[in-house]
Amino acid sequence: MLEVIAHEGNVRELRLARPPVNALGPDLLRALRQQLQQAINDDVAGVVLSGAQGIFSAGLDVPSLLKLDRAAFTVAMDDFFGLFAALAGSPVPVVSAMTGHSPAGGAVLSIFCDYRIMAEGDFRVGLNEVQVGLVAPECVQNALRRLVGAYRAERLLVAGSMITASEALGFGMVDELKPMADVIPAAVAWLQALGRLPRQAMLKTRHIARAGLRAPFEAGFDLDAFVAEWYLPETQAVLEALVARLKK
């Protein structure tokens, strides 16, 4: 479900390994949150989040989440948004090695990281929550605005657009495109380069620079409001229709 790989320079890779599309179900969300915290506790030089060839993560595992009762769903979403808060507030840098398609939650994981390297080719990324009846909360919208600017973020979010890797690079949603085989090595190398800088100066500067990313979580995230939106009749109908299409 989640592979933990050590690289030179005290860099740790957390590789999503939940076939076929690395969907973020309750168990994977909990494992990823715990392993990120473990890496932080171990004071690694940096963390790489990666996926399988062709797919980084397809986002939330909607079919499994729809089967949960409200209490269990709330726990899963606490891990989901807790993971984003941990990425935003991580005291060590994190790079997203986007090894393919990255819709919805996959894209959200990436925008909370320090740096994003995506596989070049016919891959897409985007926050398509609107298309499945969900609302991207302020903490997510803020993270996207930080990368692409307020107006571009509005257009992408309101339409739930899925854009190509090359468009994402042009918009600033990803930082580099690499051949598939080079995505993870490039992510590791980026962190190794940071590791050669004076550590305390780099980490303190980074902490200041990322204050705006942390701010919505420090102000308090309204998990109950997100859960309530999930159970709205319109949202449930759209999600059920999505699951029916996936079964076909």
UniProtKB/TrEMBL annotation:
CDD domains according to UniProt: crotonase-like
Leader sequence segment: none
Pfam families with a match to the protein in the record: ECH_1 (PF00378)
Superkingdom field: Bacteria
Family: Belongs to the enoyl-CoA hydratase/isomerase family.
Stated name of the protein: Enoyl-CoA hydratase/carnithine racemase
